[in-house]
Amino acid sequence: MAITSKMVKDLRDKTQAGMMDCKKALEKTGGDMEKAVDLLRQKGLAVAAKRAGRATSEGVIETYIHAGGKLGVMVELGCETDFVAKNDAFREFARDIAMHIAAASPVAITREEVPEEIVAREKDIYVQQALDSGKPEAIVEKMVTGKIEKYLAEVALLEQKFVKNPDLSIQDLLNELVGKMGENISIKRFARFQVGVAE
């Protein structure tokens, strides 16, 4: 199948990948747009894995203010070079992450960083709910483990579904950006402020 420039442009619009990468992906998949998108995402994953250990000492701090000034977020996004820190796609990603944090209110960046006391409190609630519903103790443990897994996926930023596109997690978006920029990028920290609410 002949790969047209319109097909390449459509794939580029969908993925923000480079023109040559889009053309190669379409050639490899015989012009199948969905398979080409998947191929480019896998390439992003591979690049992200290769670059994961590299230091991210450059970057930006981005803010998002919402709801008439009653809700705000600051996020620090790290990268390897000043060149990437000034890139529009990098800055747009930082803004999207700040906006996502405002909407989704994560507790931590990764599940490992969720404070132990919060996990313990949730576990106690789930155990009590299961026991109150009359479930046998052998089943309670399995139920609680499943609920804790689900809870961690909901409160860990990298595992949350992106509010603008629930098909992708924040980790998926980060991997795509790493693939596109060609260097390690990390969400270093964030703070969410809401008037009248102690975080």
Task: Write out key terms for the chains shown.
3 domains; translation elongation factor activity; globular; alpha+beta; single chain; 199 residues; three-stranded antiparallel beta sheet; Helicase, Ruva Protein, domain 3; Tetrahydropterin Synthase, Chain A
Written account of the structure:
This protein is α+β, with helices and mostly antiparallel strands and 199 residues long. A hairpin with a 2-residue loop joins strand 3 and strand 4. The strands form 2 sheets. A 3-stranded antiparallel beta sheet has the order 1-2-5. It has a two-stranded antiparallel sheet with strand order 3-4. It folds into 3 domains: 47 residues, Ubiquitin-associated (UBA) domain (Helicase, Ruva Protein, domain 3, Orthogonal Bundle); 92 residues, Elongation factor Ts, dimerisation domain (Tetrahydropterin Synthase, Chain A, 2-Layer Sandwich), CATH 3.30.479; 40 residues, Orthogonal Bundle (GTP Cyclohydrolase I, Chain A, domain 1), CATH 1.10.286.20. Helix 2 packs across helix 3. The longest helix has 19 residues. The chain starts with a helix and ends in a 5-residue tail after the last strand. It is built from 8 helices and 5 strands; from the N terminus they run αααββααααββαβ.
> What is the CATH C-level name of the largest domain?
Alpha Beta
Sheet with the most strands?
A: 3 strands, antiparallel
**Oligomeric nature of the chains:** single chain
Q: Would you tell me which CATH topology of the largest domain applies? A: Tetrahydropterin Synthase, Chain A
Specify the CATH homologous superfamily of the largest domain: Elongation factor Ts, dimerisation domain
Kindly report how far apart the N and C termini lie: 56 Å
The total count of strands amounts to 5
Structural class, from secondary structure content?
alpha+beta
| Number of H- or I-type helical stretches | 8
Q: Would you list the SSEs in sequence order as H and E? A: HHHEEHHHHEEHE
Q: Which shape, going by the Cα principal axes? A: globular
In CATH terms, what is the architecture of the largest domain? Answer: 2-Layer Sandwich
Return Rg in Å.
Answer: 20 Å
Main location: cytoplasm
Organism: Desulforhopalus singaporensis
Pfam families: EF_TS
Protein name: Elongation factor Ts
